[in-house]
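Hi everyone, sorry if this is the wrong subforum. Our group has a chain we'd like a structural model of before ordering constructs, and none of us has done structure prediction before. Sequence below.
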Amino acid sequence: MQNRAKKQAYLHELFGFDTPVKGFEDPIPVFAEKTAFVPDVNPDFVFDKDMVGRVLRSYGARENIMLTGEKGTGKTTFVQQFCARLNIPLMTICGGPGLDESYLMGGKTIEASSVKSVDGLISYCLRWGINILIDEIAAIKPSVLVSINDVLNGDQTITLKHHGLDPSKSPVDLVDQEGSLSITRHKAFRLFACDNTGGKVNKDPRYAGVMVQNTAVRSRFTCFRMGFMHPALELKALTNIVGEKLPVSLAKQMIELAMRVRAAFEIGEMYDTLSFRELKRWASKSLVYGSLEDEIIPGAERKLIPDVHNGFVDAVYTGMEESDQDMVRQLFELVFNTTLSLPNEYKNTSTEFLKLLDSEELNWDFAA
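Answer:
Right subforum, don't worry. Here is the predicted structure as tokens:
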């Protein structure tokens, strides 16, 4: 990662904007080539211009950066694509209660009958100037994150706690020995984190399993809240991903339904919201479940008619709480001017079968 060549480039061109980002009107130095661990560029990802400028300023100031917000607002993808556009290497850690300090900062292992010190993901990246993304950071035990406060604090020299001290070595010899007691922070190292709650007190049962983080840990991050995209940007992102087979008018209706669900969630009328991730899945499944229109002109290419009903049921509806299902059926009818058509598993209930039995209308020869 040392001595990588750089080039001058316009920030707005790298991130796909038509006009310059405020404060970055002139070219900036960026890495010229992609190297190991640099994420692949996703040309369909749509950035918010203001967010790019603010995050880049924090990045330039060597701050720890945390992105918070609802599910599916693009927190993780933003970090990955931010690094991809700037040719910055990135490693990702997915948070969980099983992570301990040795996973992050290393420990000792046995190799060829000898004790050997090895790095964890963070200590390795500290040495080599690779960015780290801790995804779902609030799922990590608070005591583990407290133990890396020296990393979060921006200390230039990080002491590794797993090393024993050889009393026969002088301090100079101790620093020089292989698997040094300390790490000098690489100037290119940055730490990102993503989380729904930001490690704050949260009684929302949707985020069961996350933990309240020590306020000293939270205070060491510059936090940015990721909201849902502007509808026009969401339309652009959705059509970029699924292509021209999805009519723009239909895509707008899908986004309108998502907006209505999100608005109902914000005022407490729904238990959960509808993410862009679910919106993409709905659009994709609508095309997969779609059918070709009846042939009107012999020899003419028939258009695909997306199946928004079955697509929505499998991509979004079945995963919802029952109370949300009641609400979303009303919203679906409002937006599409038709009742949501539910598949057989919702119609063939025991109650319906019993009604048919009592009325002597149950078809016992159905399976024949």
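For your construct planning: The mean pLDDT is 86. The first helix runs from residue 11 to 14.
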